[in-house]
Target: TetR/AcrR family transcriptional regulator
Amino acid sequence: MSSIQPIPRIQNDVNAELRLIALQMFAENGYAGTSLQQIADAAGYSKSSVLYHFRSKEALLEESLAPALSELGEFLDSVVARASSDELRAAFVEEFVDLLLEHRLAAHIIINQGQTLADIPAIDAARGYIDRIGESFMSELPTTKQRIRLGVALAGAAYVLVAARPSTAEIESVDEIREALIDVVSELITGLSA
Amino acid sequence: MSSIQPIPRIQNDVNAELRLIALQMFAENGYAGTSLQQIADAAGYSKSSVLYHFRSKEALLEESLAPALSELGEFLDSVVARASSDELRAAFVEEFVDLLLEHRLAAHIIINQGQTLADIPAIDAARGYIDRIGESFMSELPTTKQRIRLGVALAGAAYVLVAARPSTAEIESVDEIREALIDVVSELITGLSA
DNA sequence: CCCTAATCTGACCGATCGGTCAGCGCCTGC
DNA sequence: GCAGGCGCTGACCGATCGGTCAGATTAGGG
Model:
């Protein structure tokens, strides 16, 4: 306890707080549509303070996405490790949906704004991961139909995760959403090897 | 020819040109991420000239979306007119996918940026239309699973329509995409009445 | 207690934002 | 050939953008 921590400059509370707020606002209003001032106001700090913790707006985005990126990379490794045998597909889908649920905000940013933010390294890396995960599900060269099914599953899931319209408030449990998502995604994915 | 046109102040060429360019840029880089200067540069006009044709940036967006809005409204009418008998579902899906294909840029803006742009009347109207189209497919109160399937189908389709990654360039024909989309959307939609 | 370093802030920077306005050239109808 | 309007533009506006910097404030270990 009293000994120095292994890595002294660990992310502190303020840092994590800012990353969470930024992630929410980037997902809801878009990266371009969210200013550092708005983030600072929402967090109760000054804009200068935000820029003290993060070198730039882009760095704030990248560090906010980092945890999701890390887990996405691990998931990709586990996918390529186990060969894509048919009966393991269901387990993969379940893990993948859980990954989306855990990092729903990051997923929404990467998928919905990935096109716009293509020049940001973290975004580019994430898109590369996703591409390779998709490829691992496909035998040989993907057909148009396969790529469209995968795209619909991915983008559709990412959208649903954040859509949460004000009307018909989010009374429904996460479990219910999880179950429905696993159902629809696996239905879309299983059509890929055909 | 020499007689005055029925409605003198019809949309002229420049107007239509600007609307198309704006629609493309809004879809690709986001509404907040696209400046009037960028639109003007892309069109080869000055920013002042853009604002001469359109009262404001918001008006440019609304007028760019107008054709899609109009057709979407007509589609909604045709949906509620014919009762949603099961065997007509396929025809509905086909029409709907064609609508998405025809107005792919507008669809992408409405679905992917609808949350952010909720205070813009045209966007709000479009989201209302889509909600009502969705409701017309559902019997009684929609379950979570039903709403998720519909959300995945809509957002997934909208994403695929604009995704068109630079890699593996858009060699594939529109017909191929259309066929795949009709297939996957109808598969998702037909699960709604269950 | 005091010195240092971490944290936080307001003032300020140049650039760009959406938008206004006066005026330019050009075409057209009289 | 002249008057008038339309299309278009540069200059300019206040506000805000992301980012810098010097200094105030705070916290903590010796």
About this structure: Chain A has nine helices and no strands. Residues 14, 45-49, 52-53 of chain A lie near DNA strand C (CB under 10 Å from a C1'). Residues 1-9 of chain A have pLDDT under 50 and may be disordered. The domain at 13-189 of chain A is CATH 1.10.357.10 (Tetracycline Repressor; domain 2).
